[in-house]
Amino acid sequence: QVQLVESGGGLVQTGDSLRLSCAASGRTFTDYVMGWFRQAPGKERESVARITPNGVNTFYADSVKGRFTISRDNAKNTVYLQMNSLKPEDTAVYYCAAGRFVWGSYDYWGQGTQVTVSS
User: Is the pLDDT of residue 104 over 90?
Assistant: First the structure.
């Protein structure tokens, strides 16, 4: 089992920045690909960013490329999502997740953190 706890969400204005954190505990953190996902009201959950276990390879949704950066600190068992130039359409509950494969299903999920961007 892997336990994931997100933090760092909040209410910001258009153009502001936020950094989300996700602390992992349980099994070996470096065994897992980590991802950030989001779900806005009335919409399906979508992938935002993913990072390989060694942190070398990252992948982003087109909607966040150039604005968001995913990173991980394996010594701290933590994954981050730096979000810059936030837009109202970024408003959603953000979840971190852990999986074995970048493009496979993710096995463990956090409880989510709300990000609200006002116009």
Answer: no
Query: Residue 111 is encoded by which pair of tokens?
Result: 């409880």
27-54 burial, b if ≥16 CB within 10 A, otherwise e? eebeebbbbbbbeeeeeeeebbbbbebe
Measured distance CA(59)–CA(32) in Å, rounded: 15
- pLDDT of 52 > 90? The answer is yes
Backbone φ and ψ of 31, nearest 5°: -80, -10
pLDDT at site 1: 87
Q: Which of 26, 118, 10, 19 is nearest to 72 (CA)?
A: 19
Question: What does the alpha-carbon distance between residue 7 and residue 87 come to, in Å, rounded to a whole number?
Answer: 19
